[in-house]
Amino acid sequence: MVFRNRTLKTSLVVDIYKYDLDCQWIDITDISPGAYRLQVRINPEQKVPEANFQNNVVSCHFFYTPIGGLVTNCTLGGGGY
Fold first, then answer.
1. CA dist., res. 81 & res. 78, Å (int)
2. Are the beta carbons of 71 and 39 closer than 8 angstroms?
3. pLDDT interval class at 26 (50, 70, 90)
4. Residue 69: how many CA atoms within 13 Å on its side-chain side?
5. I want to staple 36 with a disulfide (CB 3.0 to 4.6 A). Which of 3, 10, 15, 62 is the partner?
């Protein structure tokens, strides 16, 4: 069973998936607690034609502690490869 909650917030669409769904989680087993930059790229090799590739990267601050993590300050676009 997949838990999915689709919510419309201003102009953004948010999807929430249960942690055990493939490709909806990141393995952070071997990282130490601390501050990190989390960056996600979609279509990085530009194999899928698009009118604009500038919105295919999102970067966020990720703060990790032994009991959980917090993602903040996400920005869309740009991002070097």
1. 9
2. no
3. confident
4. 20
5. 62
Q: List residues bridging with 69 in a β-sheet.
A: 64
**What is the spatial distance between Cα 76 and Cα 68, in angstroms, rounded to a whole number?**
24
pLDDT over 70, % of the chain: 77
Q: Label residues 7-44 b or e (16+ Cβ within 10 Å = b).
A: eeeeeeeeeeeeeeeeeeeeeeeeeeeeebeeeeeeee
Q: pTM score > 0.85 for this model?
A: no
- Residue 47 contacts residue 54 (beta carbons within 8 Å): no
**Cβ proximity of 16 and 5 under 8 Å:** yes
